[in-house]
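Researcher: Final request for today, and then I'll write up notes for the group meeting. The sequence and the SMILES for PRP follow.
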Amino acid sequence: MSEQPPSSPAPQSDGPAGEPEGRVVLDDRDIARALTRISHEILERNKGAADLVLLGIPSRGVPLARRVAERIAAVEGVEVPVGSLDITMYRDDLRKHPARGPQHTEIPAGGIDGRTVVLVDDVLYSGRTVRAALDAMNDIGRPDVVRLAVLVDRGHRDLPIRADHVGKNLPSARTERVAVRLAELDDVEGVWIS
Ligand SMILES: O=P(O)(O)OC[C@H]1O[C@H](OP(=O)(O)OP(=O)(O)O)[C@H](O)[C@@H]1O
Ligand SMILES: O=c1cc[nH]c(=O)[nH]1
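Model: Predicted protein-PRP complex:
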């Protein structure tokens, strides 16, 4: 029998979220260190910041992408374009996913054609969000290279998708919930598992 798809989290409101239940796996300083490392990894892999574009997947991938861009600017002195990519209508599990209005897609002025696009998200789980992001990008342009950076990889992939840059590999049970909170959007900052 085939495995069940991951269970859907409860519908989310768009307002700031408070502290989740469970055990803290990353605090604000851990997140800062992980993003600093990821930023250096991206620069090493790309041999600098040339042609880079960071696209955050809403909601929390967007502030994470901005934080990476800030770090790259500090290290390299280059302003990397940052955008956001709404994947809502490209999901293949829309019926199971909590109803949520479309989010914001904002492609930087230079576009993504011929660029190295780094998709940024908070959690990588089944891989269906990233698959949807690849489809969404296909309607926008044709990057030379697409890479993936995530704050947390919790495993349990349904699809052959992997991250190039990972803040923390977090072994988890399918029944567990990983919750990310970021100061830009929420009342607290950290990663919790429950
Ligand atoms: O690999 P997957 O199984 O697709 O899961 C990962 C996605 O799930 C979460 O998004 P969610 O839809 O919960 O919304 P959020 O971005 O507002 O947290 C998370 O932010 C990732 O985008
Ligand atoms: O536990 C999970 C699963 C998917 N997305 C999350 O943010 N957390």
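Model: Residues 1-13 have pLDDT under 50 and may be disordered. The beta strands are 23-26, 52-56, 82-84, 116-124, 145-153, 165-169, 178-181, 190-193.
Researcher: Thanks, that's everything.
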